[in-house]
Amino acid sequence: MSDQPLKLAVKRRRWRTWYTLLLVVLLVFGGFYLFSIIRQAQAESRLRALIAEIEKDDPHWKLKDFEAEYNKLPISPAFLKCITAVPPGYRGWAGDDIESRVGALDYRSNGRDYNTRFPDKYYQILNERITDDGVQTMRQALLELAREPAGYRLHEGTRISLSHIQDARTIANKIYDESIFAAHQGDGDHVILAFQMAMNNARLLEQSPGLLDLLVALSLRNLGAACVSHALALCQLTDPQLQRLQLILDQQTVPPVDQLLKCCRASFFDDWQGARTDSQKRSDFIKAYTNPPDAKATWKEIAQHWIDRIRFEFILSNLTTTQAELLEVTGHALALNVNHPSQVLNYLQQQKSKSDNVLLKNSLDFCEKLVSTRLTHLALLDSLRAALACERYRLVQGNWPPTLSALVPQYLSAIPLDPFSGQPLLYRLLPDGVVIYSVGTNGVDDQGDVLETNGSPKDRGTRLFNPEHRGKKYEPSK
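Predicted structure:
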């Protein structure tokens, strides 16, 4: 009997098995493909709905619209003059070339040297450098910047480049040097001019649509406030000078939290949109977030790099979902801002810790940093405003006010609120003076710890010293 029919049956069964396996594989991949299409369609629909909701409240939320409004402003002639007057490689009048000379001291005097005057030798070196004929052009340009009215921008381009940010920092270094030197000279009028220049410098940057510009602007304002605090620790300003400083502070408009968040939202959304449509931007994203290993990398580091690369490629393939999540989180944060800005900070921290999406975490980290810097800036300016009122009160009464309420309404229209707690700023009488402060980012009253005596201060505010303690080495009260 022939075994040919049996061989044919076995052969047919094998082919049926392969056909079945092939069909299962096709069905599985087809199912995944169909699922991804449906999921992508749902994400696109979700994103379109979120954008439509945003545009009801903020029709100019895209960066191009921000930039179009910004570019309508005329260019600041005084700022451009300052840039051209800056010597190449300038890092401040009290830079490395001075610090390396005999008798020099770090001119950024913090902590235990907060209210210590320069040694005579260092003062002489600094005086020679600052009064040199070569710096007069820049000094004149800075004075013009101080007097320039509002309504200018920094540069002709649609964005301020990193080099122009560096220019702003360079000018800030010059302003800081001038202010510290003036404080050591007891020149209150020059302290006021330097403070005005710092505020104008920051104001120009705050009108820009760039995120980095906003962060630098807030930092420059903080630096300006620190200069005035330093002057109050070194010398005695007159009542008219204190009133002029108060007037400058009263004229400041701090960018609201919702403006900062909207700028963050638009910036990151546009960056991710570019990564979806532009292969070069996508490649730049991968390089920036996956840190390619060098030639000396171990096999574990190489393996970790490829694991990170695969995870990041997956994130990039779902950018629509990431964009939608960003809009949802920032939208909720903006709603929280109606109650209190500190709630926004707490919410951003929570969302950042919960997310495992590196792009979303990075954007929320920047938003958190921007909001935190803004609240710190507001705390410093408001505590300085109250400190100036305290100093004016002491000049008239001969002693510090028992509470901040004693300053209202003659010296303050109202007690400033702590941006981190929503309560009035704290006030503490000390053996060597007083301190007006905010609880800071940790939300805890650390007894007015505002000086850099042991690392970063835990609270944020302004110290005022009794006249007999000014210009002397600071010793913490026990």
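Summary: Residues 4-57 form the longest helix (54 residues).
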